[in-house]
Amino acid sequence: MIFFFFFFFFFFFFFFCDIFFFFFFFFFFFFFFFSIIIFFFFFFFFFFFFFLYCHFFFFFFFFFFFFFFSMEHFFFFFFFFFFFFFFISSIFFFFFFFFFFFFFLTFIFFFFFFFFFFFFFFFNMFFFFFFFFFFFFFFFFFKFFFFFFFFFFFFFFFLLLFFFFFFFFFFFFFFCLIDFFFFFFFFFFFFFFIKYIFFFFFFFFFFFFFFVTKFFFFFFFFFFFFFFF
User: Fold this and answer.
1) Max CA-CA distance within the chain?
2) Torsion angle (degrees, nearest 10) of CA 154, 128, 110, 165
3) How many other β-carbons are positioned within 10 Å of the β-carbon of residue 210?
4) pLDDT tens-digit profile of 12-45?
5) Quick check: helix, strand or coil at residue 106?
6) Which of helix, strand or coil describes residue 16?
7) Which end of the chain is more exposed for a tag (fewer CB within 10 A), N or C?
8) Is the overall model pTM greater than 0.85, yes or no?
């Protein structure tokens, strides 16, 4: 009887200790695991929308610049499509890695993007009609003012062109560097993050296996002594 008393006492004592120990570590790593997920997605959303906003600003800033200061349509559309492909490539960078998260968001974004594209395209046509009408008006009625304005226009145009190329290459390589940093930051963070996933499942299965084997050990031990006595 003393044996059975101590046996049941220690059996249930270690049994509840294992339960407490198992669930303590389970919930501890469970919440630790999800805290990492929350941390990861918080920074992901923050950087995603931040760099999306940066590309928005970068693209439309130079779009408006050429919209009002370009002389030729070819010159305008050449740089427009250049920035267009640069902008789309940055979007597909996110689109490729996080397709399931941002499919709907990307769909909305492209809808607004092409809407603005056609709007600015027709607005650009209107601007050039007005621009040439303005020049011919000066040419036929105020020749002196026309050449005077023409000279200053080209002077400021090439001056702005110089600043444009300077800012273009600066911002272009700056955003390329940001995308490069952004990719490797999330690459290493996700690699670091996966390590904790394996760490969590290792402890989960380890304590689960430890708990179940101990339970069957005491169960087998009890029946063995019960039938033995």
Assistant:
1) 124
2) -10
3) 13
4) 555 555 555 555 555 555 555 555 555 555 555 5
5) helix
6) helix
7) N
8) no
Radius of gyration of the chain (CA): 34
Supply 218's token pair.
């005491």
Q: How far apart are CA 185 and CA 97, in angstroms?
A: 13
Cα of first residue to Cα of last residue in the chain, in angstroms, is 11
Q: Which amino acid is at 206?
A: F
Rounded to 10°, the helix 143-228/103-141 angle is 180
Q: How far apart are CA 105 and CA 21, in angstroms?
A: 44
In this predicted structure, what is the pLDDT of residue 223?
56
Q: How many CB atoms lie within 10 A of CB 12?
A: 11
Distance of CA 175 to CAs 4, 32, 97, 186, Å?
A: 74, 34, 18, 16
Which residue in this structure is represented by tokens 């590309």?
55
- Under 8 Å between Cβ of 102 and 95: yes
Give tens-digit pLDDT for 53-69. Answer: 555 555 555 555 555 55
76 DSSP 8-state letter: H
3-state DSSP assignment of residue 174: helix
Taking the C-alpha atoms of residue 107 and residue 104, their distance in angstroms, rounded to an integer, is 5
**Nearest by Cα to 210 from 25, 48, 73:** 25
Sequential DSSP letters for 23-72:
HHHHHHHHHHHHHHHHHHHHHHHHHHHHHHHHHHHHHHHHHHHHHHH-S-
Q: What pLDDT, on the 0 to 100 scale, is given for residue 73?
A: 47
Residues 82/164, Cβ–Cβ less than 8 Å = no
Rounded to the nearest angstrom, the gap between the alpha carbon of residue 61 and the centroid of all alpha carbons in its chain is: 22
